Amino acid sequence: MNQQQQRLVQIIQKIEIFKGLNMDEVRQILQVCKMRNFAPNELVYKAEAPSDEMLILLKGQLMITSASGEPLGSVISGNPIGEMGVFTGHPRSATVTAATDAGGIAIRKMDVEIMLSRNPGMYVKVLKNMVTILSGRLAQANAQNEQHMRTIMRMRDLMEQRSHSTSEEEK
Fold it and tell me: What angle do CA 53, 9, 136 make, to 5 degrees?
């Protein structure tokens, strides 16, 4: 294995969805990858489009925006984008555009499905990782909802206090 392939193996093994895969399993992934390059401002993925591939960014930076165009964040090299949609079948939740010259390896949904169907051990590892990722996201969403609910309750209490103060002044 050459130095570039070794670097790709290390990057893939750090990605949450592929955590715990051994060298042979990572090599199988690399066999179905295709290099993709993007110029600055080039559309990578569009919100609501089918999630038919994921991208592991190897160089550059990507910008993430909501379907309405609101900035959501960015992705830097060494990180994946679109992996959840590939595994869940949900359409893309955001638009992704290259912020700089960018490039990475793309893995098509169809290739992932074929590869995992041929390797049940690998499939189990990926599914366990997905459960962990989705559980973490659910816990984070629940915590945010709780925080929002506390804020709403405080605002309601303030409005009631002000309403009572105004009523008292009018008497």
Answer: 60
SS3 80: strand
Q: Which two tokens stand for residue 48?
A: 């609501």
Q: Tens of pLDDT along 50-100? A: 999 999 999 999 999 999 999 999 999 888 898 888 888 899 999 999 999
Q: Which amino acid is at 166?
A: T
- Pick left, alpha or beta for residue 152 (phi over 0 → left; psi -120 to 50 → alpha; otherwise beta): alpha
Distance, CA of 97 to CA of 75 (rounded, Å): 10
Residue 62's nearest CA partner among 26, 23, 92, 31 is: 92
Three-state DSSP string of 91-125: CCCCEEEECCCEEEEEEEHHHHHHHHHHCHHHHHH
The one-letter amino acid code at 65 reads T
pTM passes above 0.90: no
Cα–Cα distance, 115 to 33 (Å, whole number): 12
pLDDT at 171 > cutoff 70: no
With CA atoms as reference, report the closest residue to 32 among 108, 83, 87, 104: 108
